[in-house]
Specification:
Function: Single strand-specific metallo-endoribonuclease involved in late-stage 70S ribosome quality control and in maturation of the 3' terminus of the 16S rRNA.
Oligomer: single chain
GO biological process, one term: rRNA processing
Largest sheet: 4 strands, mixed
Cofactor: Zn(2+)
CATH architecture: 3-Layer(aba) Sandwich
Strand content: 15-25%
CATH class: Alpha Beta
CATH superfamily: Metalloproteases ("zincins"), catalytic domain
Number of helices: 5
Keywords: Cytoplasm, Endonuclease, Hydrolase, Metal-binding, Nuclease, Ribosome biogenesis, rRNA processing, Zinc
Strand order of the largest sheet: 1-2-4-3
CATH topology: Collagenase (Catalytic Domain)
GO molecular function, one term: zinc ion binding
Length: 168
């Protein structure tokens, strides 16, 4: 039984279809759930937890970022937990929302010399961990979160996106 009920909304051009994004996000996030359950002993409800994914553009994410974080600039990914959750806590029936901007993901993928899909995969995992209470506001938190990201991405066949960098 899957642990996630993924809801997709495409609100900008250049994204694949909702069906294609559902396949991609399921391929990324269901193994992330399995990893958290097995490796981190993350509890999950018996019924699937709903997760909303919004695929948008720089203009839209800039407005959201300005409104909710007081940062008037586009960003790659924003996460909005439905309920406050500490790492290791039991999620509720709605996990939250992840919003991703196409132009920023594309620009960063080019800068990092990665495929768009690989970078999107990393950002999905990153945003997903935020919904579970993980953060990178200080070095200790960043090391924990980045370590989880790296281990989940390795399970998905991707290399460490933080290799050679200091924690965020």
């Amino acid at each position: 039984m899957t642990s996630l009920d993924i809801q997709i909304s495409v609100e900008a051009e250049n994204w694949p279809s909702e069906d294609e994004l559902l396949v991609l996000t399921s391929r990324v996030l269901n193994p992330a759930v399995d990893f958290l359950k097995a490796e981190e002993k993350q509890p999950f409800p018996k019924t699937p937890t709903e997760l909303s994914l919004v695929f948008t553009d720089d203009a839209s994410i800039r407005e959201i970022n300005a409104e909710w974080r007081e940062k008037d600039t586009p960003t790659n990914v924003l996460s909005f937990p439905a309920y406050p959750l500490e790492p290791g806590g039991m999620p509720g029936p709605m996990l939250g929302d992840i919003v991703i901007a196409h132009e920023t993901v594309e620009r960063e993928a080019l800068d990092l010399d990665k495929s768009f899909e690989d970078h999107l995969t990393h950002l999905l995992v990153h945003g997903f961990l935020h919904l579970f209470g993980y953060d990178h506001t200080d070095t200790e938190e960043a090391e924990e979160m980045e370590g989880l990201e790296t281990r989940i991405l390795a399970k998905l066949g991707l290399s460490d996106p933080y290799a050679g960098q200091e924690p965020l």
